[in-house]
Design goal:
heterodimer; A: 250 residues; Rossmann fold; 6-stranded mixed beta sheet; 4-stranded antiparallel beta sheet; 8 helices; 12 strands; 29% strand; B: 424 residues; alpha/beta; 10-stranded mixed beta sheet; globular
Chain lengths: 250, 424
């Protein structure tokens, strides 16, 4: 589904990604771990199409097509979802409005009719229950005045409504207390699907206790230097990132 | 100075050509005073950024010409324009075309609506040049007395016809004790002629009364208007003002509120949307003569193209007006690099126990919010529209006259669509 080869990317002329390779297939959950500044969020932003990041070399193929030539909105409509590390507060834009507009943008792209208001509400309410979110969130401004946990739940709510093929969740666990973490993990697990790939970008192993990945990759100075199964995450937790560096270089 | 003055003979002649009635003396006195004042000159303290010289020219031309007047030309006005408002906003409507008032106006029960010329009362002309000019050439105005609380708003619809006309409008609205009144004022054009409209509205609000006043200016883009609102508040009164300026080539609003009684509350909210070469100037003046009293103010502007807007918010707290609580904000969204906003708070405080806050912001659409929306599948233009709308909704959410909510929502939708489209 996603094939990244030798990806090099810069922001403000500073190189962050320096030859990254990654292959993700449908039905898989990948965890990308790494220390601060290793390029985790950059990878997520480049896949979503943020204009501040410039790809200077390499390729990103999504479902057999060059992803890099698509606008951010077209990537979303083609089934890519980025769960933001810092979801943006947008006062004055109703949460339900955005959800509906997002769902309809995708449906229109796929040649479907707009979602029926009743169907939309039913789906939203069901998902919010799963995420332990109060329904009043629908009528509030997007992320406006939400706590850290509420923002992350809201991201998963959007993900559930948009049913992406490829979801990149950037530090979805950061700033969450244990209850919120469980609720978010619950939501993500309910979205596991044989036709959906999920990439978890995380600093800590903690999230992976609740969402079990098929593969774990270690990102270091803009490249993936080590890959393995879920046990790699435990080794990292025990030995720290410095251990990876010495393991790889020896 | 000369460019903004008007020939006194011309003005006198114009005044004499108006029908002789109760207003004649006021007109003549005002004409005399105006001849000494002239139109405000750009660069003077109150008119730093707004140039009325073309108004002076237009007025001279009009007075020199046939001084044609569309008062007898009502039939030519498109009734659709009237209905586009009156069918949607449920109110007791008074329609005024090119300054001409329907002869059969009557007020709903508990109110009196008359022509000013038929009210036996001395009219306070005002001291600023444009109010004096208004008094000099005023054909007639409306006088409303409200001694009840109406369910529906009183609506005043000002329509400017297609010909080049100079129009003076005047409304005097008196609200008696403990009454609540909603007023919707709509200013529209029936054509694309070069017009100048000068409107003065006076509210006097007796103890315990309240006024919710919504003013919607959506005139033709060739139109020039100067608009003044004076509100005098007695004790325990509330004056809510929601102004929406969407149209016009040049628009100048002066909103002057004077708190003359304790525990009065003034809320001034405004939204101005300017594109192309539009110029919109809002001057507000809140005078706290006594305390405790409260005023809040929030003006928002969205500017695109080569438009220029001005916000000048004066708050005056008189000596002894202790317990005054005042805050004032002006937020601007610039959709174009060429658009210009000149924003200035002006606080004059002579009392000791006072809380006054003010702030102004000028910015573009938030890039991170744009990306967030696009990452959810909304295209760039739609994302810009959504964010621009969100900015405007800050004013719409403060609307105090429910009856015009739908009308305004539609109007703003359409206008913002154009604004965002033009900004690209």
């Amino acid at each position: 589904m996603l094939e990244i080869e030798n990806l090099k990317a810069t922001i403000a002329e500073k190189q962050i990604l320096s030859g990254l390779d990654l292959s993700v297939n449908a039905g898989e959950i990948h965890a990308i771990m790494g220390p601060n500044g290793s390029g985790k969020s950059t990878l997520a932003q480049v896949i979503a199409g943020h204009a501040d990041y410039e790809v200077i070399e390499g390729s990103v193929e999504y479902q057999g097509h060059n992803l890099l030539e698509l606008e951010p909105e077209d990537r979303a409509r083609e089934g890519i979802f980025l769960g933001f590390q810092y979801p943006v507060e947008i006062p004055g834009v109703n949460n339900a409005y955005l959800l509906k507009a997002a769902v309809n943008a995708k449906r229109k792209h796929q040649g479907q009719d707009e979602i029926d208001a009743f169907e939309f509400l039913k789906l939203a309410k069901k998902t919010m229950e799963l995420l332990d979110m109060d329904q009043s969130f629908l009528n509030r401004g997007v992320n406006e005045g939400f706590s850290g946990g509420e923002k992350k739940r809201n991201e998963i709510l959007q993900m559930a409504m948009l049913e992406p093929k490829l979801a990149i969740l950037d530090e979805t666990d950061s700033g969450l207390d244990i209850d919120a973490l469980k609720a978010v993990a619950n939501g993500v697990n309910s979205l596991r699907h044989s036709e959906r790939a999920i990439v978890l970008v995380t600093h800590y192993q903690r999230l992976l206790d609740y969402i079990e990945p098929d593969y774990v990759h270690v990102l270091w100075e803009g490249r993936i230097i080590l890959s393995g199964d879920k046990t790699l995450a435990h080794k990292l937790e025990e030995n720290g990132y410095e251990w990876v560096r010495t393991t790889v270089s020896s | 100075m000369t460019q903004n003055s008007l020939s006194p003979e011309l003005l006198q002649k114009a005044v004499h050509s108006l029908p002789e009635d109760n207003l004649s003396i006021m007109r003549l006195e005002a004409a005399d005073r105006f001849s000494n004042m002239g139109f405000p000159v750009m660069g003077s303290e109150d008119w730093k950024y707004t140039d009325l010289s073309q108004i002076a020219d237009l007025t001279s031309q009009w007075l020199n010409g046939s001084m044609q007047d569309n008062a007898d030309d009502h039939a030519n006005h498109n009734t659709q324009i009237v209905e586009s408002v009156t069918d949607i906003i449920d109110a007791h409507w008074i329609v005024i075309r090119d300054g001409a008032i329907d002869s059969h106006i009557t007020g709903p029960h508990g109110t009196t609506i008359k022509k000013i010329s038929t009210v036996n009362k001395k009219i306070v002309t005002g001291n600023d040049a444009m109010s004096v000019f208004n008094a000099a050439l005023l054909r007639d105005g409306i006088h409303i007395t409200v001694a009840t609380t109406l369910k529906k708003p009183i609506g005043i619809l000002y329509i400017d016809g297609p010909a080049s006309v100079i129009t003076q409008n005047r409304a005097i609205i008196e609200i008696e004790e403990e009454c609540r009144l909603q007023v919707v004022e709509c200013c529209l054009s029936a054509g694309t002629g070069k017009q100048f409209t000068n409107t003065v509205t006076d509210f006097s609000i007796a103890a315990g009364a309240s006024v919710n006043y919504v003013r919607i200016q959506d005139r033709d883009f060739g139109h020039t208007s100067v608009n003044r609102v004076n509100a005098l508040l007695e004790k325990n009164t509330i004056f809510n003002h929601n102004g929406f300026d969407l149209g016009g080539a040049l628009t100048r609003n002066d909103i002057v509120t004077e708190i003359a009684g304790k525990d009065a509350l003034v809320n001034l909210n405004g939204l101005y949307l300017a594109s192309a070469e539009q110029h919109i100037d809002n001057h507000t003046n809140i005078i706290h003569t006594v305390g405790p009293s409260t005023s809040t103010e929030e003006y928002r502007g969205i500017l695109s193209g080569d438009s220029q807007c001005v916000f000048n918010g004066r708050v005056f707290v008189a000596e002894g007006a202790d317990g005054t609580d005042s805050n004032q904000y002006n937020h601007n969204l610039l959709l174009s690099e060429r658009a210009e906003i000149d924003t200035k708070p002006e606080l004059e405080i002579y009392a000791d126990d006072v809380k006054c806050a003010h702030g102004a912001t000028v910015g573009q659409l938030d890039e991170s919010a744009l990306f967030y929306l696009r990452s959810r599948g909304l295209n760039l233009e739609e994302s810009q529209r959504v964010l621009t709308h969100a900015f405007a909704s800050g004013t719409l959410s403060k609307l105090t006259v429910e009856a015009c909510y739908d009308y305004l929502t539609d109007l703003l939708d359409n206008r913002l669509e154009l604004l965002v489209g033009a900004a690209r």
